[in-house]
Amino acid sequence: MTGPRISSARLHETITELSKIGRESTGGITRLTFSKADIEARKYVSELIRKAGMSVSIDKFGNIIGRSLNAASDAPTIACGSHIDTVPNGGALDGAYGVLGAIEAIRSIHERCTPTKALQIMVFTEEEGARFGAFIGSRGFAGLLNASNVYAMRDKEHVTFQDAMHNAKLKPSSQRSRQHLNIKAYVELHIEQGPILEHEHKSIGIVESIVGLGDLEIEIEGKAGHAGTTPMQLRRDALVGAARIILGVNRIAIKTGIPAVATVGSVTSYPGAPNVIPGRVIINVDYRDVSLPRMRGLEAKIISISKQVANESNLKIVIRQKSLTKPAKMSTNVIRMIETSSRSLELSYKHMQSGAGHDCQNMARITKTGMIFVPSRNGLSHVPNEYTKPKQLEDGANVLLETLLRLANE
Ligand code: GLV
Ligand code: MN
Ligand code: MN
Description:
The chain contains twelve helices and 15 strands.
């Protein structure tokens, strides 16, 4: 008799249900941290975790923690999970698949057996950084952030993390921190978000390392004024300065060379009217590379070009580091377990790097960590038409299930 297997129908149903929460008229999904949609999604997922035979608690960063019933808080534990926040107008699978696949895997395990170690699901807060800063939940959980600093973080409307969490009526239900949890391993299931697996016709990606990524918020201040009456040479146009910085950032990444990348994907211009010279602009620079020294190099050049533009254009700038997540290597032991699980399920696999950031790179700082990828159609992600075939989603969730069982019975 084979071991437990996930129910593909149930997985498909939960992915479909969660994708309805925060759905826009464009077809995309927007669930920013502690928004109405995020709160509704949290309720839905918490209910599913309970149905999988687990208790639900919330830690001080708003992370949802599902845990095998009756497991002592210091029992050896195998954890898995991901996030349910999205980028604005994102897809149905980034993060959501990892959480729902983990719930489905654990539910299927619990229906058939009780592993020796406790199982735990992590639903991390604010992975995407679309509101307060990337990876707040996993960085906090891994002890890399101080809660009072997190509570003071502000979104673009100046709402603090603490107020947003309070307004969402989320109260930490336990004082438990990672020190009280004996987490032996963490495994994350995710869509690849790139084209490699599809291109090479492989079912499973086994991640070996993940890039580091940083987010610099640059606030540029000039002088607002009348667009018709202010002569060109008398202007201090913050958006023109931002445009020069954006081009500079692009050139820096190209010059640094593969695999460095840098992107300005968010520009907020104030007051934002066609007939007013922009007096204040906020841009966010996302920059990534494979080693910390290379990341620091990119960062120094981005800061330097920003200061140079500000000087030349008589603008003021303030640069804030919103987040910095170090590159991470996955554990050779967990990599081996994922490989053995893929082989036993007769699935083709490929060892690969991740150019996208993931919560597991913070978990890698505190425990043995591994990551399972499934193909993404046309390599697309962070867009509404993110898609993976049901059979591929099922395969990935079964590899997770097998890997959890192996780790839990090790
Ligand atoms: C996470 O979604 C990332 O931006 O890589
Ligand atoms: Mn993700
Ligand atoms: Mn993402």
